[in-house]
Amino acid sequence: MKVIVAEDQGMLRGALSALLDLEDDIEVVGQAENGEQALELIRSLRPDLCVMDIEMPKMTGLDVAERLKEDRDPCRVVILTTFSRSGYFQRALRAGVGGFLLKDSPINELAAALRTVYAGKRAVSSELALSAFEAENPLTEREREVLKLAREGLPAGDIAGRLFLSAGTVRNYLSEAIQKLEAKNRIDAIGIAERNGWLD
To answer: What is the DSSP annotation of 109-167?
Structure first.
């Protein structure tokens, strides 16, 4: 199978590529240092799989996966992450990601996951699946919208105008979100929601 490795840390990208290349049935055909480059390589080299870091400059691994799904590109995606954020996991599932693994997984585990995904199945780190199961997003769609706009620094009145709500309703949504997240204030609530990937 032909594989592209996308990872913004050069040393890790090189090490991953070299180790995967040692596998008889895996050939690393390209390396990318950011999501944009990964997308270009996928379009030009037509690999079977792309192994991507979740956090990359220009486009994240999830952004790339979503674009591939939109374009109906047959390249399968395996995401590597250091974060067990449930919001990321849910978003990855929606984007049709085939594998979701922790970065510190042993290389033989990664190679086995690539074979599983190549065969059309899904490979998910049990730790990531468990944390996603335990931490469902408590925010409603409207609370997320309000928090996203608050993150841009907009006051309640401006958020109300954008969402065609009254300022009082916006304040209610904000206080509801603050309570649900057990936050001290709206800035704390935004931070908690971001760390869990609930605003993506």
So the answer is: HHHHHHHHHHTT--EE-HHHHHHHHH----S-HHHHHHHHHHHTT--HHHHHHHHT--H
Q: Which amino acid is at 185?
A: N
The pLDDT tens digits of the residues spanning 44-73 come to: 999 999 999 988 889 989 899 999 999 999
Enumerate the domain spans of the chain.
2-134, 141-195
Q: Look at the domain 141-195 and name its fold.
A: Arc Repressor Mutant, subunit A (1.10.10)
The CATH superfamily label for domain 2-134 reads Response regulator (3.40.50.2300)
Is the model more confident about 82 or about 130?
A: 82
Distances (CA, A) of 26 to 35, 48, 173: 21, 10, 50
Q: Count Cβ atoms below 10 Å from residue 38 Cβ, excluding itself.
A: 31
DSSP conformation class of 68: H
Judged on CB neighbours under 10 Å (0-12, 13-18, 19+), 19 is middle
The secondary element (H helix, E strand) that includes residue 77 is strand 76-81
The pTM is what?
Answer: 0.65
